[in-house]
Amino acid sequence: MQRVAPIVLLALAAANSHAQVRYRLVDLHEQAGSLGVQNTHARGLNDLGVVVGFEDLPMTNLERGIHWANDSATILEVLPKDTGTQGFAINNSNEIVGVSEEVIPNHPEEDFYEDQKATVWLPGVTWNLEDLALFDPIEDYDPRIATDVNESRQIVGWSRTLPIPHEPKGFITDGTTIFNLDDLTRPMAINNNFGVVGYSAELGTALFWANQDVTDLHNRPQILGATSRALDINDDSVIVGQAQFDVGGPSKPAMWTNDAAIDLLANLPEGEGAARAVSPSGQIVGSFRDLDKGGPERGFVAFNGGRFELLPRTVGADGWTELVPHDINALGQIVGDGVRDGESGRAFMLVPICASDIDGDGDADADDFFGYLDLFSAQSNAADIDGDSDIDAEDFFGYLDLFVQGC
């Protein structure tokens, strides 16, 4: 092989580290196999790599919460009399929030009424928010779902007033005090600066709550349609979700910064999807479908104005046709669920690996070099080192630079 001077390689390598990143796939569904699961959904993870989610129980309206740690899975404890749980989020103290529920047949309100209770799983104890006295005198709150928890154990979630007809309410609590989130009736996430995002259940529009004040995120000149939802926020107040940027158009993955709403699929007019999570460094994960061309749901990472799809960058994804991310942590680890061998409901984790390690064995060696040549010759998206959607000489020399650097 002809040697290329390092200075030339450096000059031609145009990609940044996020454009070059690759992942190793961990099949969380297989780790939960001993539990007898039929499907699995990963919804949250912390910076320790601990994951929470749930399984849809067949022939019922219930789910069974699952907790993954140290390459194994356990079931989340149900509250007394309940028969199902769901885990939605976990902080770095391994405090989990979600819901414990019981399905009541032939209920006056619904044929199969779901009696949901916002629940917190602390190490060694399960905490029912409904039992807290502070909820009782405040407008008869019925806390039904806890959606997120920050590092100070401030919890946000969905509740409702008890008299029929029920009115939706959003709440934030640390277990001793509670705030009503006013028009933000469907809070989805909280950061470590007491900022909350979500949407209005009545209007279907994105909102931001801070210092007991609500900001309308839908009121941006870029959003011309009727609906939007904010789904996550980091400590730099980068907000992500989905918005209908055009009247009558699809809801698309969106990001809010300062006074602007940004369409993360601006180059794909018929792309429908959502940005579901944002890391502390600003990496955004989400998924979309191309309504014009059809095909599977495509998971992506967006960062610094660029975007790449996850499946072509993933080692060990044989048989997988969809990777739909739901959360990302400070280490860039990603969890979600997808489709493998035609079966949906397969929870996974993606772990970032050395960019030049094509076969994912931890080393950059001849196998990786020739593996990249195969990808380049096949014009595979996985050979797009600089993330510009073209497989060309800059990608080839960019990979050479990464290979010289090693792992």
Class of secondary structure makeup: mainly beta
Helix content: under 10%
Q: How would a textbook summarize the main sheet? A: 5 strands, mixed
CATH class of the largest domain: Mainly Beta
CATH superfamily of the largest domain: YVTN repeat-like/Quinoprotein amine dehydrogenase
CATH architecture term of the largest domain: 7 Propeller
Q: How would you state the average pLDDT, rounded?
A: 88
Fraction in beta strands? 35-45%
Q: Got a strand count? A: 29
The N- to C-terminal Cα distance equals 21 Å
CATH topology of the largest domain: Methylamine Dehydrogenase, Chain H
Based on CA atoms alone, the radius of gyration comes out at: 22 Å
Based on Cα principal axes, name the global outline.
globular
Main sheet strand line-up: 26-1-29-28-27
Q: Please indicate the count of domains.
A: 2
**Number of discrete helical segments:** 5
Low-confidence stretches: 1-19
Summary of the model, kept short:
The chain has 407 residues and is mainly beta.
Task: Give the topology.
Blueprint (H helix, E strand, L loop, with lengths): L5 H7 L4 H4 L1 E6 H4 L9 E5 L5 E6 L6 E7 L2 E4 L8 E7 L5 E10 L6 E11 L2 E4 L12 E9 L5 E7 L6 E6 L4 E3 L5 E5 L5 E4 L6 E5 L2 E4 L11 E6 L5 E6 L6 E7 L2 E4 L7 E8 L5 E7 L7 E6 L2 E4 L4 E2 L4 E9 L5 E7 L2 E11 L12 H12 L15 H13 L2
Parallel strand pairs: 1-26
Antiparallel strand pairs: 1-29, 2-3, 3-4, 4-5, 6-7, 7-8, 8-9, 10-11, 11-12, 12-13, 14-15, 15-16, 16-17, 18-19, 19-20, 20-21, 22-23, 23-24, 24-25, 27-28, 28-29
Helix pairs in contact: 1-5, 4-5
